[in-house]
Amino acid sequence: MNKLLAEKYIRPLEPLPTGLQPSGSIDGVVRCLIFDIYGTLLISGSGDVGTSMQAIRSDSRLRPLLLEFGIHRSPARLLEDFFSTINQRHAQLKASGTQYPEVKIDHIWTKVLDWPDRRSVRRFALAFELIANPIYPMPGLKRLIGKCRKNGNMGIISNAQFYTPLLVEWFLGAALEQMGFQKDLLIFSYTSECAKPSEYLFQLAKKRLERRAVSPADVLYVGNDMLNDIMPAKKIGFKTALFAGDRRSLRLRENDERCRGIIPDIVITTLSQLMAYL
């Protein structure tokens, strides 16, 4: 990841209490831990990957960013072009049968900016995202991953973009595989252009775990969103942990019919509480 961009835009954040208490229990062993990223491993200022039109539009850093990259468009026009291009790609993917489409954000910016240089596009995309969605490690992240590293299989299923694993690696100080994550269990939405809450990403993990002789009942999936995380993980047969550690990103979805009857096995409010289940 670009060190200068990270140092320029990343600032400390603290999670905001949710008022929930740890609860629930897990039967049997946990042979594999799989995590969501935004709102779970990373504090997310906007609550999820991607951008909020209202938040980015009012951010005073956007205009200087455009000047820095030599973009001669007003912030309002750029944002209109950006979200319009995303909506067009979503429509194309839905028309081809993808219920929950995901874009490849560097492809979107390539079209919006009309730049041939992929490296410059990606530098801009990362800077834009760090403004739109400030992030920082959840307390206890390094300690938890260090502990999990000694306990076998570990993976990620997350709505994400190309910069997402790079940011996690930046905070951990090492490549994901060096920290104990299994390469075939690193499953990000942008690679397939299919997002959670689709079960597709979870099905991929299930099949890959079967090759390791790990059954779904031996997997604990940790996420902060009842719809995007707990619901599809439950349907696949994984054990589930609802991470209720930050008010910005906790999504209980109490009025969403798709989550009716879905109950996580455990609720945790800090990452360190997972230690008891390893």
Share of helix among residues? 25-40%
Q: What is the C-level CATH assignment of the largest domain?
A: Alpha Beta
Please name the fourth-level CATH homologous superfamily of the largest domain. Answer: HAD superfamily/HAD-like
N-to-C order of helices and strands: HEEEHHHHHEHEHEHHEHEE
- CATH fold title of the largest domain: Rossmann fold
Strand content: 5-15%
Total strands: 9
Biggest sheet layout: 7 strands, mixed
Quaternary organisation of the protein chains: single chain
Characterise the protein shown here.
This protein has 11 helices and 9 strands. The protein is of the alpha/beta class and 278 residues long. It folds into 2 domains: 3-49 and 136-277, HAD superfamily/HAD-like (Rossmann fold, 3-Layer(aba) Sandwich), CATH 3.40.50; 53-132. A 7-stranded mixed sheet has the order 1-9-8-7-2-5-6. Strand 5, helix 8 and strand 6 form a beta-alpha-beta unit. Helix 4 packs across helix 5 (105-113) and helix 5 (105-113) packs across helix 6 (118-132). The chain is globular.
Q: What would you say about this model in short?
A:
The protein is α/β, with parallel strands linked by helices. It contains eleven helices and nine strands.
